[in-house]
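[#protein-structures] MJ: dropping Transporter here for a structure pass
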Amino acid sequence: MSAVVNAAFPVFALILTGWLAARAKILGESATQALNRYVVYLSLPALLFRAMANADLTQLNHWGYIGAFWGGICVTFVLAFVPLTRRESGTAFSDRSLQGLAGAYANAGYMGIPLCLALLGPASLPPAIIATLLTACALFAATIALIEFDQHRDRHWAATLTKVARALARNPLLIAPVTGLVLALAGLQVPSGVDHYLELLGASASPCALVTIGLFLAQTPAAGGNHSVGRMVLAKLLVQPGVTALLAFWVFDMPPVWAWTAVLMAALPIGTGPFMLAQMYGRDATPTSRAILVSTLASVVTVSLLVAWISRHPLV
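AK: finished. structure tokens for Transporter:
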């Protein structure tokens, strides 16, 4: 329980800091957009580039684990994306894509890796890193592609594909990890001074994003977007870990510590990525911002129960 609370408390505190700063008018109304652009165009690309450039590619070659974790992501994304009611069928494709992203986007780097190390030990670090990369890079890239397609599909299919390809090629959240992966595949090392610079810049991504959410929540009316929040939260905290556990323990073959790492990472609350993307594309960020807050609060209970369950099972 204490490990979960210690991991979740900084998230609550940073969101509250942004909320209080907005209420006290310490930061102007333009701060939300400015901080969001800083995260999207500077700190988050630095974080993604460094994660891929420094990745140990030999540790990423575990297809059973990738299949289990990615399978949980895909099922949860579809569940949160597909409209189930007549009211939801009127939601724009881009907004449903963001809801799908929120339903499957775990707070992997900020909460997941420290929690895995505290509960499962150093052996959980490689699978935790894989889960972080799948979430922050692969899932992010797929959602960006869906949104770009939606924004350009009013043209002929060839023109649409061309526009989407150009937009993706200019997107810093895709350019950064792809460039890092190219360097890793080529066996090139980032100079230590540059790597430290990227480490410092990337370390500010999560704190700034969480403060931005607090600013946004303080400036947003209480009504609106509530019908989808519960669905995103339930998909993230219950469906994704359930599907991941089924795949990790009964479909694919992997060591127990890898299987439990997959389940624990899948059970984490929603990260800041969906909110950042909603702001970047000018979509309504109210549902995702509230889903992040609610899922983080609820995860103190759900993840604590999972931690207690894992503690009763052997890891070897």
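MJ: nice. The radius of gyration is 19 Å.
AK: one more thing. The chain has a mean pLDDT of 83.
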